[in-house]
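Appendix B. One record, verbatim.
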Amino acid sequence: MATGSPQAVNLLEHSIGIWPTQLPWYTEVVMLPPTYGNWQELVHPLDGTYYYHNTKNALTLTNLRRYLDLHSLKDFIDVYYYVVPDKQVIAWLEDLNSKLLFGECIQPSLELEAQYWKHFEFFPYQFQMESPQVRHIWREVVCYIREAMTLGQSSAASMFWTLDKINQIGTHLATIESLADNEIIEETGVMFCCRVLYILRT
């Protein structure tokens, strides 16, 4: 018989026992992502956190746990850039000094596309990538493998370091595609593919 306060004894007599191995099942059922106002906290596949605003369709790396008054964030978190999925670029509504953004970049359109892929590497939430896109990336990498094998001075070496690294990337892309569920690539695969596309475009 349990000893202690009458309330503790009463609680023990009317509770249902649970095995420690059952705890994960119970916690999975009730755990929801933390929300801060309309901001939902998301966990990045590499363990960082970021936040998604469900009515503004906005994302931020700002740690919202530190803000007690989320209403003041409306003034703080403003649009820095827009993601344009059908063009695969990022864009701004206000004027920018392109020299600050691009420096001496020869092809600004490629830099805008590179930043598009960087965005989804950081914020993979709700981004869908399908197997044909992975195959397309793999074909691009194969072109660089051929270039590295046939030319003494290859641009592939400056992007991917060595021929072995390029081959590893190709192998990893094939693995990502083979793990696709109904042609949809999972988040860590999306991140890797976006990273490769960022490298290919810069």
